[in-house]
Amino acid sequence: MTIKDIAKKVFLIEIFKGMALTLRMMFTHAVTRQYPEERREPFPGFRGLHALVRNPDGKARCVGCGLCAAICPSQCINIYTSESKDHKKVVDRYEIEVLRCVYCAFCVEACPFGAVVLTPHFEYSDYSRDALYMDKEKLLSNWDKFMTGKRAEEYFERFWRPKLEDFTTPENQPVFRGKEG
Amino acid sequence: MIETVFFTGSSNWMLNIVFIIIKIAVVIGVTMLHVMYATYFERKVIGHMQVRLGPMRVGPHGVLQPLADMLKLFFKEDIIPANADKPVFKIAPIIPVFATLSSLAVIPFFEGFVIANINIGLLYIFAMSSLSAYGVVMAGWASNSKYSFLGGLRSSAQVISYEVAMGLSLVGVMILSGSLNLSEIVNAQQGYWYGMFLIPQFVAYFVFLVAMFAETNRTPFDLPEAESELVAGYFVEYSGMRFALYYAAEYIGMIIMSSIAVICFWGGWTLPPMLTDAIPALKAVPGIVWFLGKVYFHIFLYYWVRATVPRYRYDKLMALGWKVLIPLALANIVVTSIVKYVI
Ligand code: SF4
Ligand code: SF4
């Protein structure tokens, strides 16, 4: 141990340094957000309450293929389907028990139609389980309530792209692109 | 006339008793208020040191938080574990509160204001502060839980080792002032131009500060209640009012220890004669202002250290007590005696 080390130990240099830091910090601005008064927009990609996408004709976009229910790790999606007179599949009930959901968004990824989404809405605590058992109506109204304006547009761009557009590797990705034409 | 009787007593013992009871009520009331707001300021200060806000909800800037806490604790269910040793479990929380509150009796808050001006004030305070450790040990034993038990064991070991260092650190002060009476210790400091034993006794002050943290079970020596390993230590099983009593005792203990530090090293309610000679206007300020200011500084120190220093390991705590603080305090006694003898 050098003399410097000994001096450091005897005069508690490190502790005093730490105390100077905490004292300095006491006079800085706190970073706390006082939540109910001070709110912040969730970041893009935030995974909140579910919504079922409503087609422009007002009906649910979901076709009842059941992929979302199959992949859901917490098995909280229930889909009941039946066959209509003209032999089409009809989704009778589509229910998500959001209390069991872990917000992994696997259902969103699995859906081939982009028919289920996670909205950025997260303030939906309630006193009863019933209120948090989302049936089809509630899920559709979530879409109306929380996916309006810019968000709906974004969603449209990402999933409802016009059928004739090409799907290619992005331009800025350095990949082998094969022969032109 | 009333004033002189109030402070120095009269030949009428009835009147004396009435005045003493009034004094006790005032001191306990003021102390309890301080305890309540010590918890509030602790949370505020530590919050701001950690770049948070601390309590903000109850009242403006959370100033009514202590009241809310008190109400909550008061109405909480008092749970006694089935296998607890019930009488001991019930008595244990009363001991520390009782012991710390009785230490208040000998503390001179300002010139002439002390409930019991006894000649062994310092010894009495040591006795009371060791007595309050019994509450901890008994709680640890009676709860019949391993966490409480470990907390109680640690507390007893810690108090025994740090009591020694603390007592020895104050011997220097006793040598210089030639008295164990707290008021006389303060007056003795006025005999020096610097007016504080802090200056000749800085080693003792350091030892006392460290021992003070250990004695009141505060971070970095809060091993008896180490949350991360013992959940809450000796009072794991306590709830409601009984828990509140432990909490109150801890804060009263902090106030007592800060007062002792102020009285023995910072000149109590007085200012250094050098200062008062230079600025005579300072003499007009009542002594309680200086006393409280110095006490608040020490309480702030408690918070400040808690926000900065992590908890010591148990063997390090013991090593620090026995291998550093006690030799330091002993060396301080030797040097002080020699210097006192020579001068
Ligand atoms: S987010 Fe995950 S857990 Fe929740 S419903 Fe979708 S797949 Fe299930
Ligand atoms: S994967 Fe999509 S379309 Fe299929 S059932 Fe789920 S939400 Fe409906």
TrEMBL record, chain A:
The keyword Oxidoreductase does not apply. GO terms for molecular function: 4 iron, 4 sulfur cluster binding; iron ion binding; NADH dehydrogenase (quinone) (non-electrogenic) activity; quinone binding. Its EC number is 7.1.1.-. NDH-1 is composed of 14 different subunits. Subunits NuoA, H, J, K, L, M, N constitute the membrane sector of the complex. Keywords: 4Fe-4S, Cell membrane, Iron, Iron-sulfur, Membrane, Metal-binding, NAD, Quinone, Repeat, Translocase, Ubiquinone. It comes from the Bacteria. InterPro entries: 4Fe4S_Fe-S-bd, 4Fe4S_Fe_S_CS, NADH_quinone_OxRdtase_chainI. It is found in: Cell membrane. It comes from Dissulfurispira thermophila. This is NADH-quinone oxidoreductase subunit I. GO terms for cellular component: plasma membrane.
